[in-house]
Amino acid sequence: MNHKQKNVYVCQNCGYESVKWLGKCPECGSWSSFEQEVRKMEIKKSAAIRTSTPLIRLSESSAETLPRLSTGMDELDRTLGGGLVPGSVIMIGGDPGIGKSTLMLQLLNALPAPTISLYISGEESDSQVNLRARRLGIRNKQILFSAETNLQNLLQEFDQVNPHMIVIDSIQTIYHDQIDSIPGNITQLRTCTSELLRYAKNHNVPIILIGHVTKEGNIAGPKVLEHMVDTVLYFEGDNHYDYRILRSVKNRFGPVNEVGLFKMTEEGLQVVKNPSEIFLSENTPPQSGNAVVAVMEGNRSFLVQVQALVTKTQFGLPQRTATGIDHRRMNLLLAVLEKRCAKPFGFYDVFVKVAGGLRMDEPAADLGICMSLISSFDDRILPAGTVYVGEVGLGGEIRTVRRLADRIMEAQKLGFQMIVVPRLNKSLGKLEKAKLKEVEHLSELI
User: Fold this and answer.
1) Which candidate, 158, 161, 196, places its Cα nearest to that of 175?
2) In whole angstroms, how far apart are CA 170 and each of 175, 185, 292, 316?
3) How confident is the model over 194-215, as a mean pLDDT?
4) CB-side exposure of 398: number of CA atoms within 13 Å?
């Protein structure tokens, strides 16, 4: 068997390959992203006989489902759609220091006793991981550790141990010795992930890959990595707050956009069972600019507080600052209030913040944001015990949102006496209509 080398240029942003260097990638449009790679190619003297997989009828194929493996952490099971699916590959991304490795160690510790798990770390030594494990109180003797980063050696270790669960921290440190490029390279990531995916499917072993993220918050590497794996989770949070959100953005075996809420403590991550009480526990005394909204994260509804501060600008150009919501969404709502409700925000500085470090992306929070802005602009306190739910259109109309009944039930469960909702087109069943205030336009509330 002979070997020869092949030089290719690979875009480090999307993985596009070219036989020559290009200034601009024709696939993703990025500039100066091509790097040269040297690959070893094997030339076989005799071509191997290829065997094709027999065709089967889809209606006659086996529909056997393997039981899910519970992680022992309710919030993680919720995010995964009920637990770990045997043979699945899960990618977890998040900012440095957010708690990804801590979450994985606690996951392995919470697995049932007969489960043999393998923790691969290419970034820390066994003594460093052991120090964290002692701090977290991990005593599970079925957790095996390896600092190997060569993929071929790892596959041999897998065959020797036959683990029931594998965690690799991180995929950017694993390399294939047949590829002449550094670990973390586009080709290395794609090849190593493909080999691990094949092993997981053939042995019905769930594998969790921890991935680094870019400065934009996306998992480092080509987008094809997220297409290859079965589930993609993002571990979100702010280092200035103790709360962490585990969000699923892709899940072949469960719902998408499901979230799990954790609190970071000295003993590790703790599950938060009632997010509404957490985000409203530090509710300030009644003052202008505060409004409570009901948002949906996955299949869960909880209440959060929106705070707004409107002051006269001291410069020619007013300031616009948004924390926890999209800056463009805030500008859109300000334009609606100025045009449809005659509120001259063009002469005022506007600051909007979501209390607790949570980020809201859904339009159901529009009505609460508008009411907090109006409250601060007029310096009038909103009625106590009121929750606002609704999307605001460009004409100032209040549009209905999904899962409205779940939001109303969550507000009633926490003792809120008034829920402002869009004018309903159908009955909400057993919900108490006396506690609902239906509106069609922002002007009705002003």
Assistant:
1) 196
2) 11, 13, 40, 49
3) 91
4) 25
68-272: CATH homologous superfamily?
A: P-loop containing nucleotide triphosphate hydrolases (3.40.50.300)
* Dist. CA 234–CA 253, nearest whole Å: 17
Residues across the chain: 446
Q: Which single residue is written with the structure tokens 């949570």? A: 358
In the predicted structure, residue 177 carries a pLDDT above the cut 90: no
Q: Which CATH class is domain 277-444?
A: alpha beta
Give every CB contact of residue 426 below 8 A, 6+ residues apart in sequence.
none
Chain segment 215-270, per-residue pLDDT in tens: 766 776 667 788 899 999 999 877 777 888 898 999 998 888 888 889 888 888 98
**Residues 143, 109: Cα–Cα separation, whole Å:** 7
pLDDT for position 281? 57
Closest of 403, 395, 401, 406 to residue 423, by C-alpha = 401
How many CA atoms lie within 13 Å of 423's alpha carbon, on the beta-carbon side?
8
The reply to whether the predicted model has a pTM over 0.85 is no
